[in-house]
Amino acid sequence: MRAPLGLMAALPEELDAVLADMVDARIVARANRVFYCGRLWGHAVVAVLARVGKVAAATTATTLIEHFGVRAVVLTGVAGGVGDGVRLGDVVVATAVLQHDMDASPLFPRFEVPLTGVSRWPCDTTLSDALVWAARATLAPTAGAAAGPLPPTARLHQGLVVSGDRFVSTAAESAALRAALPDALAVEMEGAAVAQVCADYAVPMAMVRCISDRADDAAHGDFTQFVAQVARPASLSLIRHLIQHL
């Protein structure tokens, strides 16, 4: 039997949407988390809430790999847009991830994870390509289908996503990120930790994020509204199209 796909949702609303479509589900409690093992659209999956922050997400990813033997990990969620042209409602598929708050200088270069020689952790190309296909299908529903969950002006981006243990919510912080990492498209709180764990275990990893805010002074209000109105259906659509494509 083929190993299951690991699905990590960043928000409870996103996880609930996936669980509503899961069949033959069984619940496994481990590492102070609840894992849902079942089938989505004919494929074996293990779905779990990532929890917030890098340490929590790393623990979740490790458990998915060690205990459930997942063949790959896909992380979905929302993020703040920091790149030029990355707007509310857009979709970002990560090609690489980096910890923007990692700084062990002068012992190691800024952003480099000590003793690894790596600052940018690449995402799996095959999985990322599948997420791109899923994002395009979500952004542009087929003729005759109901309107998609994202704004009609939403666009797809691919590139660097940065992670840190802080909700970036001021224009000054966002500007500082752009200055330090000009090619960063979005900022969130888990992806780079999950990527590092998956690299240690040689397990493919990919991530898609919907832009909920611009990581500026209006971020809190934009984030709350976006999660309530868009994040749940958008995540479900992305995962459904991903699994059907795989």
- Rg computed from alpha carbons, rounded to a whole number of angstroms: 17 Å
Largest sheet: 5 strands, mixed, barrel
CATH architecture: 3-Layer(aba) Sandwich
Strand-and-helix sequence, N→C? EHEEEHEEEHEHEHEH
Helical proportion? Answer: 25-40%
Mean pLDDT, to the nearest integer, reads 90
CATH topology: Rossmann fold
What does this structure look like?
The protein is α/β, with parallel strands linked by helices and 246 residues long. It has a single domain, classed as Rossmann fold (3-Layer(aba) Sandwich), CATH 3.40.50.1580. The protein contains six helices and ten strands. The protein has a five-stranded mixed barrel with strand order 5-9-8-6-10, surrounded by four helices. α1 packs parallel to α6.
Write the layout of secondary structure elements.
Blueprint: E1 5-9, H1 12-20, E2 23-30, E3 33-40, E4 43-49, H2 54-66, E5 72-81, E6 91-99, E7 121-122, H3 125-139, E8 156-163, H4 171-180, E9 184-188, H5 191-201, E10 205-213, H6 219-245
Parallel strand pairs: 1-4, 1-5, 5-10, 6-8, 8-9
Antiparallel strand pairs: 2-3, 3-4, 5-9, 6-7, 6-10
Helix pairs in contact: 1-6, 2-5, 3-6
